[in-house]
Structure formats: C-alpha cells, structure tokens
Amino acid sequence: MNLQSMKISTRLTLGFAVLAILIVVLGAVALLKVTAINGHFSLAIDDRYPKVKRFQVIKEQNATAARAMRDMFIVTDPAEMQALDEEINRSGKLLAAEFDALKNIMTTPKGKAGFEKLAAARAAYKAPREQVTALIKAGKVDEARATMLKDLRPRHAEYVAAVDELINLGDKLMVDAGKSADAEVANAQWTVAALIGAALAIAGVMGTWLIRSTTRPINEAVRVARSVAAGDLTTQFDASGHSETAQLLAALKEMQTRLADIVGGVRQNAEGVATASAQIASGNNDLSARTENQASALEETAASMEELGSTVRANADNAQQANQLAMAASDVATRGGAAVQQVVQTMKGISESSNRIADIIGTIDGIAFQTNILALNAAVEAARAGEQGRGFAVVASEVRSLAQRSADAAKEIKVLITQSAERVEQGTQQVDQAGATIDEVVRSIRRVTDIVGEISSASREQSSGVAQVGEAVTAMDQATQQNAALVEESAAAAESLKGQARQLVDAVAVFRLASDGHRAMPASPPAHHAAAAHAIAQAAAPKAAPRPAPAAAKRAAPASAAAPKAPARAETAAAGGDQEWTSF
Question: Keyword Secreted: yes or no (predicted)?
Fold first, then answer.
C-alpha cells in the first residue's frame, strides 16, 4: 500500500491508531509492572509479615508463660499461684490458636519444615512444662526446679531457637520480597521509560510523516496557485494519487489547463477583434471621405435641380402661352377657311363684287401678316424650348411659309383684280387653290395646336417631375448628412473598439502559455493606454450629430431629428463587410 496515496483522514486515523496502540501498550506494561510490584508487596505484607508477626506472638507468649512459671517458683500465695497458672494456660491457648493458624498458611518448603520443627519442639517443651507446673502446684518446688533445669530448660531453648529460626526466615523472606519489589520497580521504571521514549520516537516519526505528507502537497498547491496568479500557466507538477491533497493538485492542474485554453482562446479572439476593428476603422475612414464627397455632390445636384426646376417652370409657362397662341391661330385659320369658302362662293359674282374682293384681299393680307407674326413667335418659343421645341420649330417654319405664301397669293390676287375681268376663270381656279391651301393651313394649325398642347402638358409633367426629383435629392442630402453623422459615430466606435481590443490583448498578455515558449510579452506603452482610455470615454459619451455645411443647413435639419436612430443603423452597417461599404 502506497502511503503517499492515502487520504488525509486515513493518515490521521492511522497516526492516532498508532498513538492509541502505544498508549495501550504503555498502559498495559505499566499495569503489569504495577501488578508485579503489588504482588511482591502483597507477599511481604499479607503473607510474610503476618507469619513473622505470629511467630513473634508465639515467642512473646512463650516468654510470658516462662515468666509466669518462674514467678510460680517465687510466689507462695495460692491466689497468685492460681493467677500465674491461669496466665500460663491463657498463653497456651493463644499459642495453640497461633499454631493452628500457622499450620494452614505455611506454604514454602522451608517454612513447612521449620514449622514442623517448631511444632515438635513445642510438643517436646510442653510435657516438661506441664510436669514442672504440676510439681509447683504440688509444692514440690525443688523437684520442679530440678526438672526445669534438667528437662524443661533445654526444651525451652530448642523451642525458642525454632521460633527464632522461623522469625529469621520470615524476616529474610520479607527482605527478599522487598528487594524483588525494588528490582521490579526499577525494571518498571526502565521499561516504562523505554516505552515512553519509543512512543515519543514513533509519535515524532508519525507526526513528521503526517506533517510532510500533508504540507508538501499543500505547499505545492500554494506554489501553483501563486504561479497562476502571476500569469504563469506553464507550471509542471505531479498530481498523482488519491488523497485529498492529490485531488486538490489534480483540480489545480485541470483548472490551469482549462484556464490556459480559455486565455489562449481569448487572446486569439482579442487579436482577431483588434485586426477586425482596425479594418473597420480604416473602412469607416474611407466611407467617411466618400460620404463627404457624396454630400458635396448632392448639394451641387440639389442646386442644379433648383435651377432646372426654374427653367422647366419657365418652359411650362412659355408652352402655356404658345398653346394659347396656337388656339388663337386655330381660330383665325378657321375663320380664314370660312372666308375662303365665301370667296369661292362669291367668285362667281366676282365681276359684280370687285370692290368687295379688294376688301377681302386686304383681310387675307392681314391674316397672312398675323399668321407670319404668330409663326415667328412660335419659332422663337421653339428656339427657347431647345431640343423639346425642335418639332414645334419645324411646324412654325411651315406655318410661316404658309403665311408667306398667303401673302404672295394675296398680292397676286391684288394684281389679278385688275385683270379679274379677263382672268375670272383663272381667278376662280386660284381661289380654289387658295381654299385648299387654307384648309391645309387650318389642319396644320390644328396640328400645331395639338402639339403645343402636348408640349404644355409635358412641360407641366416635367415641372412636377423636376420638383419630385428635387425633393428626392433633398431627402438624399438629408440621408447623406445622417449617414455622415453615423459614419463619424461608427468611426469613433471602431477606434474605441480598437483601443479596447488592444487593452484586452495587453490584459491577457500577462498570462504565459506553453505555446508561448520564453518570449517576452509586449507591454502596452502609456500613450497607447491614454489613447485607448480617451477612445473609451468618447465611445461612452453621448455623441452629437455633426454640424451640417452652411449650404445644406436647412436640408440637414431633419437629419438631426433622425439622429437618435443612428446607433441601430450604425450597428447594422458595422456588421457588413468592405463590399457593403463600397456598395453604399
């Protein structure tokens, strides 16, 4: 199992488990040592000491009985004697009780052998003691003394020696138990100290391992985070493992990779935006120049259309006058035709009405003169009409020719009047010819009247069309003024976009990607930042429509009113390419 792949919770659990095991082992060893020490002390206090105490009681009671027996040799009073005897009996009972108790608690072989020896010495001592006591009670003091010295004293010495031997044995065993307890205490101290040292060493190793295994990946994560914060996205580090810190490093590595992709995409898009904004700015500058030229051309066109409108209106007025004159000429021609018919009718009585013929001839001459004048006026008006009056000029020439011919005919008639008598037949024929000619003149004048009417109607339509063209040119001029304002706003927005794109490129330039190698990122100069900030400020501030030229101030007034709609059209125009700008 790889310890570096452990989770932090598993590591902490393992560390605390090891510490718990060390504490349990240390406690168990200490408990065992304390139990052993307690066993030694219990052996000395609960076993050795009570036995020694009982042996000392036996020795004391034996000494008490010996003193009472000695006093029995001295006293003579029966009561005292009885008291000493009772004391001896009481000591005997106590000794019997002690022996009964010791018989059940002697466990060691030496103790059992010594106790058996003591019991045998007591039994050997008991018979002479009872014999001496009986002799004393019987008043045989000397015999009792002799028995005491001969039998009881040696047995008493053996008895005391056996008791002392057991007391010494008990003292020795107590000392041995104390030494064993001391040795066990020393052993426990060294063992516990060694275990404490081992526990501290293991705890130190575990703590160091836990600290290093936890802090190293965290320090690595801090280093990576600082590198990312500094813009370095090329830091290489190991993120293997399944621990929380390994997962943190893996997350940081994934974050660095994704951030590098995002920054790379943003940088590429920002550079593309900068290039596109530069192209838009260049196109807007060209469009602005073309729009200004177009505005100037439209102003000139508007002025020309105004002059053309004036000319067309004058032509319409002249055509109206010509129409009126043509109608008058038609009336005159009609009347001339009627007069010729009368001449034709009266030619039969020309010989009788020669005087009237002279008047009629004068009338015909006046009509021819007026017709000539009308034809001359029509020719003048046709010359004024230019290309449109060319047909009318031809008609006027024909009318003038007819008028001249009418005048010549009148002269001939006037000459022939003097010869009317002899040339009546010839005059009649000529009058017939004059009637036909007059009919043709009437038809021609009617045609001229129709043509002049058409010219008048066309002139009115032309005047209306010129007025409409003037209005259209005025509207185009207004739209051009609006477009000029929009182009200026679009140019300012393009410059602002260019500056912002450059700032965005500079902003993402602080990040270093693996594809960048070791190249240095260009720093944006202060002047560029100032220009970009100025462009941003201009783009953010409300833009006023440009002041129209003095010549087109009146026509540009509606453009200023339509200026609020400019941003939407500017956005639409900005979406197009160079081809759209050129087409516009």
Answer: no
d(CA 47, CA 38): 13
> pLDDT exceeding 90 applies to what percent of the chain?
0
Determine the Cα–Cα distance for residues 349 and 561; give it in Å rounded to an integer. Answer: 85
CB atoms within 10 A of CB 398: 17
Question: Is-contact 406 364, C-beta < 8 A?
Answer: yes
Which tens digits make up the pLDDT trace of 518-554? 444 443 443 444 444 344 444 444 444 444 444 444 4
Q: How far is CA 154 from CA 129, 149, 160, 400, in A?
A: 11, 8, 10, 210
Which H helix or E strand runs over 396? helix 390-418
- Token pair listed for 579: 């081809």
Whether the CB-CB separation of 91 and 61 falls below 8 Å is answered with: yes
pTM of the predicted model over 0.85: no
Nearest Cα to Cα of residue 339 among 353, 369, 359, 325: 359
Q: What are phi and psi of 525, to 5 degrees?
A: -70, 155
Q: How confident is the model at residue 84 (pLDDT cuts 50, 70, 90)?
A: confident
Could you give the angle at which helices 244-346 and 153-229 cross, rounded to 10 degrees? 20
Sorted by where each starts, the structural domains of the chain and their CATH numbers stand as 3-223 (1.20.120.30), 269-512+523-583 (1.10.287)
φ, ψ for residue 287 (rounded to 5)?
A: -65, -40
